Amino acid sequence: KSRLAYTVKQSLIAFLPGLGELIAGWMISRTVPMLDIKPWILIAYPMLLTSRGNVAGILSGNLSTLLNIGIVKPSLRKNTHVFYALISGTIFLTIITGLVGGLLTLLSFFMFYPLSILDFYEILGVYLSTAIFSSFLTIPVTALVGISSFRFGLDPDIVVYPIMSTLTDIVISISYFFMINLIIGLLNVIEGLLMLSIFLLLSFLFVFRFFKSDVFIRLVKESCLIVVILILVASLSGNILSTLRSEIIKNPAILIVFPALTCTAGDIGSVIGSMMTTKLVIGFLKPGFNIVIKMLPEILGTEIVGAMLFMIYGLIGSVTEYMGVIETLRNILVTLSSNIICFPIILLISLVTAILTFRRGWNPDNFVIPIEATLADLITTISLVLACMILL
């Protein structure tokens, strides 16, 4: 009972910032009038959320584990070499995911629409600029949240990623909206390329300081391939979400709640997976599927909070759009149905990934959260589409 209450309490602290995802959804819903002119905006958005979330998950997962075992100090200044090499590797992964995600958006767009040189510049420029610019803000904040939670006696495994996934999505959405208007509307091509070049230069200046570090090499070696593969999976989310374009125009609440649903679904699995990887590393648990039984209070605690928030998202999204009682109840049912469908699948993926990677001697923090978060986005997107088709 105490473990359940403890998990509910800390999950509530960690998940409540997920309400901020509604800000991200509202911000991106302002681009709905542009979807007919720039249909790639909807295709790229889930990929940006997923790829940035993967990198943030790798950083927060490693940081929480390293804080717990004492390799990283709870301080931003005069920290260990491992800490700064971890930050450097995270920046490098951001560049890689930005390039791959931009190219995948181009490919997805080209499959359905004619592609011009201007489209090539706009898509790749907006995507890569958004990824890098947002990382300049989210990486130091992730470190600060992890260190602060550790100092105040909170569990970084529970607190760091959920809080940062929300902040990351908000920053991504604001940055995406800003870059769309900046690159498409305000800057000419030369000015846009100059801005992107500055972003890349600043990133590589930090990367080059630590790229020979064993920590950097291992992080990139273990994570680079998996994040690229997961971006390929995330591209499905973008294309699937784009099938709801007509429904989104009629019911913008769908797009408003979308980041909140995917974020919270990922948070549920990431909290469970992160707690489990830490317990595996320090020897409290042995790899095996009986972990589900041993961690049942933690699993139930995270899902109770997650299901409650799914319903709240549906309510707030509907109220924001001034919908009637029937439409509001229907949207709440849609969001709750998505949670019920997603939870057991996400839980299974998180557990299996953690066990298999730990048994192979890989760092589970570099695999569990990115895999779980990406598949959570895809599964939640599919669940949302199915629920909308049936209930709306």
TrEMBL record:
One of its GO terms (cellular component) is membrane. Its main location: membrane. It is a multi-pass membrane protein. Residues 46-178, 259-386 form the SLC41A/MgtE integral membrane domain. One of its GO terms (molecular function) is monoatomic cation transmembrane transporter activity. SUPFAM superfamilies: MgtE membrane domain-like. Gene3D superfamilies: SLC41 divalent cation transporters, integral membrane domain. It comes from the Archaea. It is found in: Membrane. PANTHER family: DIVALENT CATION TRANSPORTER SOLUTE CARRIER FAMILY 41, SLC41A_MGTE INTEGRAL MEMBRANE DOMAIN-CONTAINING PROTEIN. This is SLC41A/MgtE integral membrane domain-containing protein. The lineage of its organism: Archaea, Thermoproteota.
